[in-house]
Design goal:
By secondary structure, this protein is α/β, with parallel strands linked by helices. It folds into 2 domains: 30 residues; 94 residues, Carboxypeptidase-like, regulatory domain (Immunoglobulin-like), CATH 2.60.40. It is built from 4 helices and 9 strands, in the order H-H-E-E-E-E-E-E-E-E-E-H-H. The strands form 2 sheets. It has a 5-stranded mixed beta sheet with strand order 3-2-5-6-9, with no helix packed on it. Strands 1, 4, 7 and 8 form a 4-stranded mixed beta sheet that branches. A hairpin with a 4-residue loop joins strand 2 and strand 3.
Length: 165
Amino acid sequence: MVGRNGRWSSAVLIAMVVGSMLSGPAVQAQVVTGTLLGTVADPSGQVLPNVEVVATLVDRGLVRTTTTNEAGAYELGFLPVGTYRIIATATGFKAQVQENIELRLDQRLRLDFTLQLGALTEEVTVTGSAPLVSADSSNIGETVEQRRVLALPVRGRQFIDLVTL
């Protein structure tokens, strides 16, 4: 580590600086996923346990599945940001589908379902978008597009300068 003249090797020094920056709390706090959560109820407002909730990331085909608990609640965490198709299904109820659900960076998006009585093969599709306001969290996150990163006035275009942003 120490050269002939008693100086630190520049490679070791650079590795130490980069390592300390990557282990800092600012980098550890970065979140690149979101969370979908909510409750599932019947038409009378009674919560439904054991309902299967399936979230499909439309552009990549990623599928995540969970079931509601005794309180009719579900939570799908650590989902990549993007546009989702969400389906809730239960025995004796029509499946309900919510299309074009936009999950943003570090968002906790509440998406509640009300399942209608019916045959298993029937499906109800709800179109529209979910609200952009998250009532479950005060966190704010934003996805930075590549063209915005390229337009940043960064001295020398060094990736390490982006960490300080």
